[in-house]
Amino acid sequence: MDYYMQEVMSRHGLDLSKEQMIVLKKLHDQDGLKQNELASLTYRDKSSLARLLSKMEAKNFIVRKQSEEDKRSNEVFLTDEGRRIFHRTRPAIKEHLETMEQDLTEEEKHHIIQILKKVQFNFTGKTANL
C-alpha cells in the first residue's frame, strides 16, 4: 500500500512521503499543535518526529515556533506552501482510494473497516476513527 501510495504521489508531481502527508493532515485540522502532541497524534516517537519535521521545514511545508506559554516546547504551523501541497494531495489520495476500492461492494468495504479497527485496537488499545 505504501509503495502504491508513493507511486501515485510521484505521478501527481508531489515530493511527499506518507508520514509527511499525515503531519500535513493533522496540522490542516489543527494548526499550531505542540510538537509533543503531534508526536502522540501521529504515533511517532519524539526523535523520529523531530527528524521528519526538519525535512518538512527544509521543504518549507511547516515552521516551528517556540511556545509563548512554555519556552521549552515548540508549536508547529503549516506554511502557505504546506497548505498548497496539502490541497494538491487530495486528487492523489482520491485516485489511490478509488483504485483500492475498485470492485468492492459497500458490505465488503464495511467489513474491511471493521477488521482494521480491530487490528488497530489489538496494537494500541484505542479504537480507530476510520
From TrEMBL:
Gene3D superfamilies, sorted: Winged helix-like DNA-binding domain superfamily/Winged helix DNA-binding domain (1.10.10.10)
The HTH marR-type domain, residue ranges: 1-121
Presence of the UniProt keyword DNA-binding in the record: yes
InterPro entries: HTH_MarR-typ, WH-like_DNA-bd_sf, WH_DNA-bd_sf
Keyword NAD annotated: no
PROSITE patterns given in the database record: HTH_MARR_2 (PS50995)
GO molecular function, one term: DNA-binding transcription factor activity
SMART domains noted in UniProt: HTH_MARR
Keywords: DNA-binding, Transcription, Transcription regulation
The name this protein goes by in its record: MarR family transcriptional regulator
Lineage of source species: Bacteria, Pseudomonadati, Bacteroidota, Flavobacteriia, Flavobacteriales
